[in-house]
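Supplementary Note 2. Why include the ligand at all?

Several targets in our set were suspected to adopt different conformations when bound, so apo predictions alone were not considered sufficient. For every target with a known small-molecule partner we therefore ran a joint prediction. The input for magnesium ion is given below.
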Amino acid sequence: MAKNPIYSCSACGSSFTKWSGRCDGCGEWNTITEDAGLSTGPGAKALGAKRGTGVTLTDLRAKETPPPRTQSQMTELDRVLGGGLVPASAILVGGDPGIGKSTLLLQAAAHFAKAGMKTIYVSGEEASAQVRMRAQRLGLDDAPVQLAADTNLRNILTTLEAEAPGLAIIDSIQTMWLDTVDSAPGSVSQVRATAHELTTFAKRKGISVVLVGHVTKEGQIAGPRVVEHMVDTVLYFEGERGHQFRILRAVKNRFGPADEIGVFEMTGAGLAEVTNPSALFLSERGTPSPGSVVFAGIEGTRPVLCELQALVAPSPHSQARRTVVGWDGGRLAMILAVLEARCGIPFAGLDVYLNVAGGMKINEPAADLAVAAALLSAREDSALPADTVVFGEISLSGALRPAPQTENRLKEAQKLGFTSAIAPKGGKAPGVQGMALNQMSDLTGFVGEVFGAG
Ligand code: TYD
Ligand code: MG
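The joint prediction is reproduced in token form.
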């Protein structure tokens, strides 16, 4: 029987039955190669008569003790890791170039080393002298961190095996290369191969590895998504260049809650931890103005208050603009549609801008009501009371759905001097002393009560 070869794209992984110069899946050129030994269809090779050895099966009852953890004493970092560093784990730290990944990891390396963990920092981007100079500037030069400046992964692995550290930091995965892979460092095949070597090495030798990864313009770790699947934990280091706040966000964590955040501030002396992010995010807030609303959010396990700002203005264009920073554009379109269809408040012909202050990014559906409030407040040119926070999810019918952890949100708001909250009806909502809770069941009611319209 004839064998049907399969061709696959090394950039996006799509497979094809025919070779072509350009991948139909991702549009990349010269990334399609024949997958040796892989074929499907009627001609595909069956497993054959050769049998494998059995694999061991166990049941779910066996007692497992939680993994031991080492704390860096940087509480913001330890929280995002799920309570500290787990031995033999592989962690990917992604972020835009220049956002502060090397600074963060050098500080983390120094803290782990001081906490008694043998730590090796491998820089493929800077010379050892540069890293030392940075350490001196950060006042970390007394930490017992071992440095190397190399990009040849084979040599690095040999060294790590001989030195047997508890933690190895590889800065960055895009600079590493293996001589078995026939392409340049940073290419998809090199990133995939070096990340695979490092993660299996971590498991085999019981060494925790941190891989630093640059993010492309599209917001993905350069190289295939497959790196994210290989590691135990994926952290993103986010922030706006013009702002000093940096947020370390867990987007995947096999050893702890995802969506947990750690907040840092970039200062002249490196990254400083921000233990009370709400106060920081609200610090730039002036007198209450139309379009500004404080959202009582939850990030991971902790409440975070932040300010949403909306601007609504007649559009000079035939197609009105919708611009969002820090929130999902699709979700904004949905809120606008619900306001129009359920409450009869049109936004056609109006440009809409929405911004989350401080460079924060919000993913929570509970921000819906705060966004709607900001949009209405901007449209009606009427400010909400300065002492009020807003939260709650909006459904397509215009009903308000209760948000989780109402009590935590209220407590945080009260701690920061707010005295009232607008939230959906229902759900567990134990009152918090000193906070007037105004509960509403649908968006129309909210519009009528707060803006006297609808
Ligand atoms: P860096 O950690 O090199 O970024 P990355 O590794 O993500 O590319 O950080 C670079 C930026 O951080 C640089 O623009 C200068 C700034 N920075 C400070 O503001 N203060 C500091 O103490 C340090 C070390 C860096
Ligand atoms: Mg760097």
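Residues 95, 97-103, 134, 138, 266, 268-270 surround thymidine-5'-diphosphate (ligand 1) (CB under 6 Å). The chain has three domains: 1-35, 75-275, 280-451. Comparable summaries for the other entries are listed in the accompanying table.
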